[in-house]
User: Which sequence fits this backbone?
């Protein structure tokens, strides 16, 4: 492959990723971090491919990504969804389990590769969950809370032994959201 072909292929994958992320209503800052595209370019892609559509449902989101981790553990339902997503992060290869204490380590990926795999995890989550409660930005935030801040980790359930996402500083009853939900039935 010649250098120009390489460059073209690289541009194409960035462009495709930008379209994919806009479709998931990712914030401009998140799209920028993955593709390196300017705000202006992202706005133009959105205007060309989404805004003009007759039944456009996609909204362009501005501002900062939400950062509260409470959204992932506020109820058993949410906690179960965060757990499913975190497991999908492992399957999609954006992070791996650290041996100790249920923490995870972020894998070394280029920004485009990371964005594509987070999209893979998010799309799989949306396809298996009947009524998804977590948006793309929350998904991104979950990944950061696990890998960067390590505020969230995989705890082990005392009842079933299964892993679940828990706040490192929360009072933990050592029961996973799936057992909680089952007992509530
Ligand atoms: Zn359990």
Assistant:
């Amino acid at each position: 492959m010649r250098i120009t072909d390489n460059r073209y292929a690289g541009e194409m994958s960035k462009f495709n990723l930008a379209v994919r992320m806009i479709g998931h209503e990712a914030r401009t800052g998140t799209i920028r971090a993955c593709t390196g595209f300017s705000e202006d370019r992202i706005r133009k892609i959105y205007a060309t491919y989404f805004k003009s559509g007759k039944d456009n449902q996609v909204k362009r989101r501005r501002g900062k990504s939400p950062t509260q981790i409470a959204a992932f553990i506020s109820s058993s339902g949410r906690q179960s969804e965060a757990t499913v997503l975190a497991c999908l992060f492992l399957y999609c290869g954006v992070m791996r389990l650290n041996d100790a204490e249920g923490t995870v380590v972020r894998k070394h990926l280029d920004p485009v590769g990371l964005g594509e795999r987070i999209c893979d995890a998010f799309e799989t989550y949306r396809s298996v969950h009947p009524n998804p409660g977590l948006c793309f930005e929350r998904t991104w935030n979950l990944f950061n809370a696990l890998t960067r801040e390590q505020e969230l980790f995989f705890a082990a359930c005392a009842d079933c032994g299964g892993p679940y996402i828990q706040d490192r500083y929360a009072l933990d009853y050592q029961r996973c959201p799936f057992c909680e939900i089952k007992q509530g039935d």
Notes: The chain has two domains: 3-51, 70-184. Residues 70-184 form one domain.
